[in-house]
């Protein structure tokens, strides 16, 4: 008597992601008493969230606190924040974010998704992002907002630490208002970026850059005028109730000074 032997093949384990995956989720809602509640405040991994006091009684403050070094190459970090109807949210970070090289050689990703519903406002004012030598980071900020919502958004990038060459940084900012694109722009700089990024038509040798975007429904009736702020900063009205301030400088301190002054003028 003979029998056929069967052998089950061992399933090969799935290849784990090359880096860390973490998401911070925030939802702000009007509390019915003139303030803003935070029914959802959940962080993961390096994205720890803390409620803070805000300068306005109507606004809820949230601080993003880095709980570990990130993003490293291969990491994918995401911040998702929604301000419901009539809610007011102020988002900030406790320290600069350092993009660091990882062992896998893969790029890191840092996504920010903001949703602003009717009558809501969001202030997203993080500390600078520092592109460290050997790093490869792709940053994407996407905003979807109702026509009655208000946004103040600041981005600052520093190319390398003191005396250090930068890594590769790719950044995209896309803002959609009432279902229509208000702003969609991309930036690439560092080794591997398209040629000319550091030339006279690009950063002109500067290592710190930033921008301030203010979307304000009141601008529809009285839009800000185009202007030059110092030698390397400009004010650009957009095709909508919004203004974009762009600044270059030798260091992050000077960029912050320029953007703070612009925020006092346009972001009140």
Describe this structure in words.
The protein is mostly beta strands. The protein has one domain (21-266). It is built from one helix and 18 strands. The chain has one helix at 252-266; strands at 21-30, 36-42, 47-52, 60-66, 76-83, 88-93, 97-99, 108-116, 121-125, 129-131, 136-145, 150-159, 168-177, 180-189, 208-215, 227-228, 233-237, 242-249. A hairpin with a 4-residue loop joins strand 16 and strand 17. The longest helix is centred in the C-terminal third of the chain and has 15 residues, at 252-266. The radius of gyration is 21 Å and the shape is globular. The protein starts with 20 loop residues before the first strand and ends with a helix. The model is unreliable at 4-9 (pLDDT under 50). Belongs to the UreD family. InterPro entries: UreD (IPR002669).
Class derived from helix and strand content: mainly beta
> Which bin fits the share of residues in helices?
under 10%
Question: How large is the count of helical segments?
Answer: 1
Q: Major sheet: size, sense and barrel closure?
A: 11 strands, mixed
Whole-number total of structural domains: 1
- N-to-C span: 90 Å
β-strand amount: over 45%
Give, in order, the helices and strands. Answer: EEEEEEEEEEEEEEEEEEH
Pfam family, one: UreD
Protein name: Urease accessory protein UreD
Function: Required for maturation of urease via the functional incorporation of the urease nickel metallocenter.
Family: Belongs to the UreD family.
